[in-house]
Amino acid sequence: MPDDFSGLGLSAKVTDAVAAAGYTKPTEIQAQAIPYVLEKKDIIGIAQTGTGKTASFVLPMLTLLESGRARARMPRTLILEPTRELAAQVHENFEKYGKNHKLSVALIIGGVSFDDQNKKLDRGVDVLIATPGRLLDQFERGRILMSGVEILVIDEADRMLDMGFIPEIEKICAKLPPRRQTLFFSATMAPEIQKLTSRFLKDPIRIEVARKNSVVETIDQKLVRVPNSPEDKRAALRQLIRGEVGLKNAIIFCNRKRDVATLARSLQRHGFSAAGLHGDMDQKSRMETLDSFKTDKLMLLVASDVAARGLDIPAVSHVFNFDVPTHAEDYIHRIGRTGRAGRSGISITLATPSDGKYLDAITRLIQRDIPPMALDGNIREEPVAEAREHEPRERRSRRGRGNTRSDGSTQHAAPGRADRQERNGSEIRSQAPRVHQEAPRPERQDRPEPLPETQKPRRGPVSDTPFGSDGPVPAFLLRPTGAR
């Protein structure tokens, strides 16, 4: 393997940009793939995330694109990504390594204005990075002509399969010129993916740099046994987060996106710097959340597999599997978010008694047992009231809104479903009303004495006439004292 990038055939502009970015030695997939890409060979690259896969096609593409010019609405190269986040990261790579070039790059993803995308397409783009759905939308609108594509990159093909994008990819490939170069990358090679490669690639070079069951040795894996109760799992997670020495930031994985939102809100209520990342969020919120996590403004990122797949955040210190993944390969993808670029990392998986078959599949895949880790003491689910001071003001005001008495004190309503979920079993069974320290209930003797019967407002028929000494009593005064 070459000791530096100068021996791979890249142009001086590209090698200078790589050196300026602080990289001196290519990774294994970069060393193997770059020379073949420069020879315009079709490639099947099998590699896990975190191996430098993106640069293995970005760097040679930049060199190949130095000659030629883009025409209006006819991109010269097309890169397909399964998610908006991955597409945005590839765009960042072109900006970083292409700083010595004058190439135009367009990002065609959901959540971005069609008008902004159309302006770039009309001027002509050298590199078009897109998600399959939005690309087909633009094609059907007549905004993109794909007859000029010279290089096609299909990235994260196994995730494309999981998300149901294979039919869209087949439609896109059918619209591209047959004489093109195709670069195909995937972490695994399911039968459906193999059929795709045999149909759309010509005499591809197969490059495999890591076995699918490989786990980075710099990751310290741990397993924590917890009860099936969601409340106990949340309490165990909080105890682990507080007890981990050296926790700088962490990605917390859930299997379902609705659980992502629930867990993120629970962590926020208990005073943690946390936010969720899932597919139902709009693009602006997703990018803002990711930026906050990358810049250390946010400590805990709660995410689903789809949302977090391929995130390039080198300095993640911990990964928590709040749910054991149902697919063993996802375990490798998840814990691979930490321990990147030679750094050490820690992954902790919370497993319930019902997760046995999933754990067995994971241990068979990685060919080792995950070392057990014991929690300190018993799991105790904290009442939400203890974390009220950390809630957003509008949430506190909404939760604390009750019935105001005449003396200014507040009679709070019975705890709702969300509150009961954050309380332990004994508190749920007791059904006792909760006492808020911030609004103590005054003693009965401090209440004002009721008015004598002769001084109480006289009841009478409701009328629209102005209120006077002899007129009927207005409706708003007919409510009993202290009524809701």
What's this entry about, in short?
One of its GO terms (cellular component) is cytosol. The chain is α/β, with parallel strands linked by helices and 484 residues long.
Fold blueprint:
Blueprint: H1 12-20, H2 28-38, E1 43-46, H3 53-64, E2 77-80, H4 84-97, E3 105-108, H5 114-123, E4 127-130, H6 132-140, E5 151-154, H7 157-162, H8 166-174, E6 181-186, H9 191-200, E7 205-208, E8 219-225, H10 230-243, E9 250-253, H11 257-269, E10 274-277, H12 283-294, E11 300-303, H13 305-308, E12 318-321, H14 328-335, E13 345-351, H15 356-366, H16 393-400, E14 403-404, E15 410-411, H17 417-421, H18 425-430
Catalytic activity: ATP + H2O = ADP + phosphate + H(+)
Family: Belongs to the DEAD box helicase family.
Pfam family, one: Helicase_C
Structure description:
There is one protein chain. The protein has 484 residues and is an alpha/beta fold. It has three domains: 204 residues, P-loop containing nucleotide triphosphate hydrolases (Rossmann fold), CATH 3.40.50; 148 residues, P-loop containing nucleotide triphosphate hydrolases (Rossmann fold, 3-Layer(aba) Sandwich); 55 residues, no CATH class. 35% of the residues lie in helices and 13% in strands. It has 18 helices and 15 strands. The strands form three sheets. Strands 3-4-2-5-6-1-7 form a seven-stranded parallel β-sheet, sandwiched between helices. Strands 8-13-12-9-11-10 form a six-stranded parallel β-sheet, sandwiched between helices. Helix 12 links the parallel strand 10 and strand 11. Helix 3 crosses helix 4, helix 6 crosses helix 8 and helix 14 crosses helix 15. The longest helix has 14 residues. The chain is globular. The N and C termini lie far apart (78 Å). The relative contact order is 0.10. This is DEAD-box ATP-dependent RNA helicase RhpA. One of its GO terms (molecular function) is hydrolase activity. It catalyses: ATP + H2O = ADP + phosphate + H(+).
